[in-house]
Specification:
The protein has 362 residues and is mainly alpha-helical. The chain is built from 14 helices and two strands.
């Protein structure tokens, strides 16, 4: 297979990537804040009712604030200038985009429609996860797995733009098999939860670059934003699970059904994309990067859309939240497996069959 040594990889790519406190124990944090939300909803039912009453135009104000601070750090980190490199190295990009925007939506719809046929609300939540490829945390997972950093930036940058164009139409088509959702509502959600934080991110990033410089942004500003995004996610989980407490306590089997669909979806996507890239003689870095991005979901968008369309106490919102719970441990498990397979499947002495120029995507 492809040699990593021939591509001019820097030594930094081989350095161990250390996860911070939040990232390393993110699954534990998620479980803890889910539990906190359950306890608040059970012990203090007035808490959930009070939060539910804080609305504007039918939407929860606390959740709207949390969702903005989940999305803003995500979109401000994207380097849109990297998109121009895509035309120089199209194969991994094409495979990943096809997996993100065709294979995964169809697979998610099929699994949800068969396994969760009796629970349309849960099926809709799975579909919302399937039609929203991740553009944020995958960059961290990619670095942790020693993947191709620039390729990851290119794909996530393009995906972040495609979400603006494709997310609302795709969600409308697939959800339309269950309920009629006005396209204008989905478009409004796209504007509020994607365009608004995107425009804000572009303005803030340009200001920071001009006043403090790009290096200060990467070393000082970005880490703070990443922590804010995680805190916003955890607070959103508290609010959502305070609404969903009765469902979880009285219908634990529903959690298992939702989990079974998510597990199947992840396993199928991980395995198929990894094998396709390997058979096409992609390097390890290209393979692991494509697999990570093709298999992950932008759960922030899915959660926001489910809440906007069906409310924070809906079955659809509940299913998207369960997706958050599973993605982190499954991604960590895949990355550890990929690193173990690397020396067995990719020989350092084999000639490169898919090349990039020295300044491009390796």
């Amino acid at each position: 297979m492809t040699s990593e040594s021939e591509s001019g990889s820097s030594n930094s790519d081989e350095e161990s990537v250390q996860m911070g406190l939040f990232e390393k124990y993110l699954t534990l944090w998620i479980l803890s804040f889910m539990t906190l939300g359950l306890l608040l909803g059970w012990l203090f039912p007035a808490f959930a009712l009070t939060l539910a009453g804080l609305q504007f135009a039918g939407f929860s104000i606390p959740i709207a604030i949390c969702l903005f601070f989940m999305m803003f750090p995500t979109l401000i980190n994207i380097e849109y200038g990297e998109i121009k490199n895509a035309i120089k190295f199209p194969k991994p990009l094409v495979i990943t985009l096809v997996a993100n925007w065709i294979i995964n939506p169809l697979l998610g719809f099929f699994l949800a429609s068969t396994i969760l046929a009796a629970n349309p609300g849960y099926a809709i939540g799975i579909i919302l996860l399937a039609v929203s490829p991740c553009t944020a945390m995958v960059l961290f997972w990619n670095k942790f797995a020693k993947g191709n950093i620039n390729l990851g930036l290119v794909i996530t940058s393009i995906n972040s733009l495609l979400i603006l164009l494709l997310y609302a139409p795709l969600a409308s088509v697939f959800i339309g098999f269950y309920v009629t959702v006005p396209f204008i509502t989905l478009l409004f959600g796209t504007m509020v939860f994607l365009v608004l934080p995107l425009v804000t991110g572009v303005i803030v990033k340009r200001h920071v670059y001009n006043t403090r410089g790009q290096k200060w942004f990467a070393s000082n500003f970005k880490p703070v934003l990443d922590k804010i995004a995680i805190v916003a996610l955890l607070l959103t989980l508290v609010v959502l699970f305070s609404f969903q407490g009765q469902v979880i306590l009285t219908q634990p089997l529903d959690v298992l059904w939702i989990s079974s669909v998510l597990l199947l979806n992840y396993i199928i996507m991980f395995t198929s994309v990894f094998l396709v890239c390997y058979k096409l003689d992609f390097s390890y870095k290209q393979t692991v990067t494509a697999t990570i991005i093709a298999s992950s979901s932008h759960f922030e968008i899915a959660i926001a859309t489910a809440i906007l369309l069906f409310g924070p106490g809906s079955a659809a919102a509940f299913a998207t939240v369960i997706g958050v719970l599973w993605e982190v441990p499954l991604m960590v498990a895949f990355l550890k497996l990929a690193l173990r397979l690397r020396p067995k499947l990719w020989s350092e002495s084999t000639n490169t069959t898919i090349k990039s120029s020295a300044s491009e995507l390796n």
